Amino acid sequence: MARRTGIFVQMQRDFARQQREQQRAAAAHVRHQQQAHREALRTAAAERRYAEQLAKADARARANMEKQRKLAHVESQQALTDQYNADLTASVAELEGLLASTLEVDDFVDFESLKRKAVHPPFQPGKLAQAAARPVMERLPARPVFEQFAPPAPTGLSKLFSGKAHERNLASAQQQFAFADQQWQQHMAAAQQRHAEADRQHQLAEQERLSRLGAAEQAYQQECQARIREAEEHNTEVDKFAEAFRAGEPQAIVDYFTLVLANSDYPDSFPQSYRIAYVPESKQLVIEYELPTIECVPTEREFRYVKSKDEITSTARPAKDLKSLYASVVAQVTLRTVHEVFEADRLKMVDSLVFNAVVSTIDKGTGNEISPCLITLRTTNDVFDGFNLHMVEPLECLNRLNAAVSKKPDELAPVRPVLEFDMVDKRFVEETDVLSSLDSRPNLLELSPTEFESLIQNLFAKMGLDTKQTRPSRDGGVDCVAFDPRPIFGGKVVIQAKRYRNTVDVSAVRDLYGTLQNEGASKGILVTTSGYGKASYEFASGKPLELIDGANLLYLLAEHAELQAKIVAPEQ
After folding, report:
1. How does pLDDT run across 357-408, given as a tens digit for each residue?
2. Distances (CA, A) of 272 to 101, 288, 357, 375, 407
3. Distance (Å, rounded) from C-alpha 543 to C-alpha 541?
4. Side-chain half-sphere of 39: how many Cα atoms within 13 Å?
5. What is the pTM of this model?
6. Closest CA to 566 of 542, 545, 550, 543
7. How distant is the alpha carbon of residue 302 from its chain centre?
8. Where are the beta strands (DSSP E) in 196-319?
9. Distances (CA, A) of 51 to 36, 40, 64, 65
């Protein structure tokens, strides 16, 4: 019993131990699972934290990139705004300096500078200039020698026993040498033949190359001669042009001053269109110059970048500033053109200059094309030379020159031109067939004094004046008093006409002014079949006197009396 009891107790102990071990294993398993779970939780938390860190870093990077993009955009917009303002400042400065920019430039056109010099490009024959290398004889193996085939000579006792063998070997070697030498000679002959053929082909190709090279050189020389002839022909025309200019030919003078104005550098928005005519009797140059409209003045005063709206806005230039700057542009163009003409006239071909500044635009009321004259003046080189253009105020300078200036150039308010451009004889504006109409047109210099007086009276009557002849003049002219019926602008007008062949002396202009004062007239008109000198225009400047030369008279007769006349001095 005791033994059984011990066995049972031992079994109970073993069972209890197993239970404890199982419990410990289960507890360890649970602890392990819990530890693994905790590790998994820690890992997941770490991964979440890492993912959150990545997300935050990415968000920060995106935010930083967006910030940098916005900053770059703002900087770009601000830079663009600054560029707009710089361009605007430059444009305004260019307009304000139109006159000053030409004062440092010599406007004289040297006829020698118009000449051309033939410039020849270098002769470039290309591959034709390179001769091909002559063919080289192909290299063959060295010619065989007998020693290469000869058997060694016997020595010692072999001399006694191998004599015949040596002879046989020697004979065989001689045969082999002869065959090898024959083969070499055949190869040599073939190589020499091939070399000779290649050399012949090379010589033929070289002859062809030299022939083509000679043809190319000949063609190049012909092109050079053509360029030389073209330059010589051009230079001959330049010499003729210079000779005609010095001779005072009207078309040459018009062409010369056209070159002068063409060389003047203006902003791209300026039309740079003009008409030029020359009256040789009075050495008077007439220019009708097209001005830009007020649109040449920038309407913006300043550009500004508004960050909150992300847009570039502009501040409008005040209307007063627009009008003021445009008036300055009009005045500067006038003074600039007059300066360029007189500075370029070193040979003194122009005694007086008439300048009419017009604007070609559309009348918004009628839709028709109009060309109102905004500035008109007549001046001489002597008068204009007395002005220091570096220091003048343009509008005040024009006032001193007795120019008629539009009161509102921005509104295209016109002034009456000193001389209508179309009043200049067309013969000096464009080529016309004058000879074909000489016989059919009355010659004013061949009219009798009475006929000439009636002609002048009828002309001004058709122009709207009430003319009354006062007395005939001994110089073939007519004096009359006319009345302009227009209110405000009308009044008494004294008209004197001189049927002259030569230039009217300034004393006649002074006499007209004296008559005007004696008669109490508001205006005096002097008409002649010839022309006026510089002194006459200088005396009449700023006075209520109008000088009409022969070219103007022909125009007025055609325009108002429908009479196509001519002024040609009779041969006798």
Report:
1. 999 988 888 888 889 999 999 999 889 998 999 999 999 999 999 899 999 9
2. 16, 11, 11, 16, 23
3. 6
4. 6
5. 0.69
6. 550
7. 28
8. 274-279, 284-290, 300-306, 311-316
9. 22, 16, 19, 20
